[in-house]
């Protein structure tokens, strides 16, 4: 890399720790090598299958995992679900912070991507991603944000959520106030916080508060998970006529 990277002091003192999981050695080494070129990243392990990824994550407690979907022993979806439950202590074990998972996929509308997002992944990347986009994606999810642009998230989830069984909205969303429910609906429709603020005629800080409460009450990690929940609960109905390509 010849481009000079600019980093904040916080990034310099706390590099993002990363695990790369892919069953192809060349791919695995390639991603690890690319990520290692960045001074604010440190690759703490690589895994050839999902089970090995879970084991390494237990040991190394990384911030981010690049997770292939199709792997032997345990696939990326199972591994993601395991990380979200086991590392968070939901299986009765001692809790530790679950990493942010970036799913690696060959096709941007692969049905497995939806399953991975529902399992707890924070976003996905195509395997032909550029180096700069890869670096940006890791930094985004490490910072606690969902990777996908809201409109792309909505299109992806809308396509596959309509094929999934749903639970009654009142059962899933009963803890939310009417305003929080409306904010969740707007998140699922692809609106950003400023756009939600304009729609509801409130300040952006108020929207941020509502979003935080929605995530907290529903036990969700980020906006991507909120979109999944909105569709799975039936709060938002997929529009089958909506184009699925780039906006």
Average pLDDT level: 80
Summing up helix and strand content along with how strands pair, one would put the structural category as alpha/beta
Total strand count, please?
5
Number of helices: 12
Question: Which percent band covers the strand fraction?
Answer: 5-15%
Helix content: 40-55%
> What can be said about the biggest beta sheet?
5 strands, parallel
Radius of gyration: 18 Å
Distance between the termini: 30 Å
Ranges where pLDDT stays below 50 over 5 or more residues in a row are 1-12, 240-247
Q: Globular, elongated, flat, extended or rod-shaped: what is the shape?
A: globular
- What's the helix-strand series? HEHEHEHEHEHHHHHHH
Q: Describe the strand arrangement of the main beta sheet, using strand numbers.
A: 2-1-3-4-5
What does this protein look like?
With 247 residues, the chain is α/β, with parallel strands linked by helices. It contains 12 helices and 5 strands. It has helices at residues 9-13, 25-36, 50-60, 76-86, 111-119, 131-142, 150-161, 169-173, 178-188, 193-200, 204-218, 223-232, and strands at 16-21, 41-47, 64-68, 100-105, 123-126.
What topology does this entry show?
Blueprint: H1 9-13, E1 16-21, H2 25-36, E2 41-47, H3 50-60, E3 64-68, H4 76-86, E4 100-105, H5 111-119, E5 123-126, H6 131-142, H7 150-161, H8 169-173, H9 178-188, H10 193-200, H11 204-218, H12 223-232
Helix pairs in contact: 3-4, 4-5, 7-12, 9-11, 9-12, 10-11
